[in-house]
Specification:
401 residues; Nucleotidyltransferase, domain 5; Gyrase A, domain 2; 3 domains; five-stranded antiparallel sheet; 29% strand
C-alpha cells in the first residue's frame, strides 16, 4: 500500500496475471480491499517522516544504527522512545559511510495507520514511498525527482537511487518559484546539486518545459504507478507493533486451528451419520432376507428335532446295547466293574458308576472312555474318585452328546 496522486494505491504482487494495481480513496478502503491472507507492506507519504543525509567514519554496519539514533535524538524534538528510525546506506568506503536516515514519530504513525489497526491488519513492514520511487532512478546519476503524492507535488534529490532531500509542495505552480531557494539550502547542507537527469511524473507534465529550462538537463517522464515496488532496507515498523502483530498472528493461527478442528469434527459427524445410515440399510436388508428364509429355517429345525428324536432307533452307535458294549470295552481291567448305567433323553445323555481296586484304575477308566473313537460324539466328565469301606475307589462318569 502506497500513496497515489490523490489517495492510496494497492500494488498486489503474486496475482494470477502478475502484479495488480488498484486505487482507492482512503487507507481504510485499502485495508478492506486486501485479502485477509495477504501480508501488507505499507509505504508512508514523504511528509510523515524526516529524511537526513549523514556521514560517519568507517565503522561496523552493526554499530551504524546506534550512531544514527544518537544523531537523530540531537536534532529531533522527540524523546527517543517516541520515534522509530532506520537507515539505508548510500555509499560505503574504507574511510567513511554515507547514508540516508529516516525517522517517524510513533504518534504520527499511529494516526496514519489507525484504519489498519482498527481492522487488525498491522503491516509486516513500514517504509517511505519516496524511497521506492527513488529506487527507479539510475544509480550512476544525481537525479532531481518530481512526482505527485496525496494531492501534493514532491521534489526529491536522489543520490545513487536514494532520496537525500525531500520537499512536499502544495501545487505544481509553486515548484518553479521554490527551486532557487531549495537548491541553495541543499548546497549549504553539502548535498549534491549537479543533476544529470530530471525525472518528472506524467501527472505534472506541465512542469516539463520550466524544469528543462531551469536545469538545462534532459527531462524524462515516468509514472510512479508503474515503477518497480522494490523495498528499501529501512524499516520504520515500531517494536511494539511487531509484538502486537505477532500476537494477532498467533490469535489468527489459533482461530484457524479451532475452525479446522470444528470442520474435521463436523466431517466426522457427517461420516458417522452416513455410516450409521448405511449400516441401518444393511441391517434392514438382512432382516428382510432372514424373514424370507424364516419358514425354511423352521422346517429344517423341525426336521432336525424329529431326526434327533428318531436317531436312537436308527443310529446303531446310539443303541443301548452298542453303548454298553463300548463302555465295557473301555474297562482297563477285569477288576474294574460298572455298577450302574442310566440313559436319558433318548440316548443323548448317559450316566455310569464304576468301582476299581485303586483310584488310578478308576481314573484310567474315565480316560479310556474319552479316548474311545466309537464314543467320540459324547463329552465325558468324571467326578473325583472316593473310597468305599472295602477300600475300593468309586467314580461317577456322565456323557452328553
Amino acid at each position: 500500500m502506497s500513496p497515489s496522486s490523490h489517495g492510496w494505491r494497492i500494488n498486489e504482487s503474486g496475482a494470477l496475471n502478475g502484479a495488480r494495481v488498484r486505487n482507492v480513496s482512503t487507507l481504510g478502503e485499502a485495508a478492506a480491499a486486501v485479502s485477509p491472507d495477504r501480508e501488507i507492506h505499507l509505504a508512508l507519504p514523504c511528509d510523515a517522516a524526516l529524511l537526513a543525509r549523514m556521514r560517519f567514519p568507517a565503522t561496523d554496519p552493526g554499530e551504524l544504527g546506534g550512531m544514527v539514533r544518537l544523531q537523530l535524538e540531537k536534532t529531533l524534538p522527540y524523546a527517543a522512545e517516541e520515534i522509530t528510525s532506520d537507515f539505508d546506506i548510500i555509499e560505503s568506503t574504507a574511510r567513511e559511510s554515507v547514508l540516508v536516515a529516516a525517522a517517524v514519530s510513533t504518534e504520527r504513525l499511529n494516526a496514519i495507520c489507525q484504519p489498519l489497526r482498527d481492522s487488525e491488519r498491522l503491516p509486516a513492514k513500514v517504509t517511505l514511498f519516496v524511497m521506492h520511487v527513488a529506487a527507479a532512478c539510475p544509480r550512476d546519476k544525481t537525479v532531481f525527482l518530481v512526482y505527485m503524492e496525496g494531492g501534493k507535488v514532491v521534489t526529491a534529490i536522489c543520490e545513487k537511487a536514494k532520496p537525500v532531500c525531500v520537499h512536499a509542495m502544495a501545487s505544481a505552480a509553486t515548484v518553479r518559484d521554490a527551486l532557487p531557494q531549495l537548491l541553495m539550502s541543499a548546497e549549504l547542507e553539502g548535498l549534491p546539486t549537479d543533476f544529470s537527469l530530471v525525472l518528472l511524473d506524467k501527472a505534472c507534465a506541465q512542469l516539463e518545459k520550466p524544469l528543462s529550462e531551469f536545469f538545462g538537463t534532459p527531462v524524462e517522464l515516468f509514472s510512479p504507478d508503474s515503477s518497480a515496488p522494490s523495498a528499501p532496507r529501512a524499516d520504520l515498523m515500531p517494536a511494539t507493533w511487531r509484538k502486537e502483530r505477532l500476537r494477532l498472528s498467533r490469535s489468527a493461527s489459533v482461530k484457524k486451528r479451532f475452525l479446522l478442528a470444528g470442520a474435521i469434527y463436523a466431517s466426522l459427524l457427517v461420516l458417522a451419520g452416513l455410516y450409521l445410515a448405511v449400516m441401518e440399510v444393511r441391517v434392514n436388508a438382512l432382516e428382510r432376507k432372514l424373514e424370507a428364509i424364516r419358514p425354511q429355517l423352521a422346517f429344517v429345525q423341525a426336521r432336525q428335532n424329529r431326526w434327533n428324536a428318531l436317531s436312537p432307533a436308527f443310529d446303531p452307535q446310539r443303541f443301548t446295547v452298542e453303548l454298553l458294549y463300548q463302555i465295557n470295552a473301555s474297562l482297563p481291567s477285569e477288576s474294574v466293574r460298572m455298577t450302574s448305567f442310566q440313559e436319558s433323553g433318548a440316548g443323548a445323555e448317559i450316566a455310569i458308576d464304576s468301582e476299581a481296586p485303586t483310584a488310578s484304575l478308576a481314573i484310567k477308566f474315565g480316560e479310556l472312555l474319552k479316548a474311545n473313537a466309537a464314543l467320540a460324539r459324547f463329552k465325558f466328565d468324571a467326578t473325583t474318585p472316593h473310597f468305599l469301606p472295602d477300600e475300593h475307589a468309586q467314580i461317577g462318569i456322565t456323557g452328553k452328546l
